[in-house]
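W.,

You were right to be curious about this one. When I first looked at the sequence I had no strong expectations either way, so I just let the prediction run and decided to look at it fresh. Below is the sequence, 113 residues in total, followed by the output.
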Amino acid sequence: MELVAEFVDYPSLKLFWLSGIEAAAFLAAGAYCLSKLREGAWSTVGLIGGLVGGQAALMYAYAWARLEWADDLGPVDAIGSNAVLVQTDWARSVALTLVVASLMLSRRSRRGA
């Protein structure tokens, strides 16, 4: 039984770090776009994508941290409910699409097309 308990704790820590890294990447993209806000519409698109993706990933990181260090299943159960899970999955997908679109638009605007 102890082997199972150790196995259950490991994925929550791993998922906390993965969600935290994802949130940091989205927020870094948003911060970069914020610094370039006056260069065109692409920066606004990237900023929105970075903030939406960062918020969704931070929500997952918070839930996994609560499970890992406080043994609280409340946030994980809330995210696991169908309505919230669908919204966060859509938020992450849309955020990634917006960040990629902003990168493509920035390349296009630099070429002068």
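Here's what jumped out at me. Confidence is low (pLDDT under 50) at residues 1-7. And, maybe more interesting for your project: The longest helix spans residues 2-35.

Coffee later to discuss?

I.
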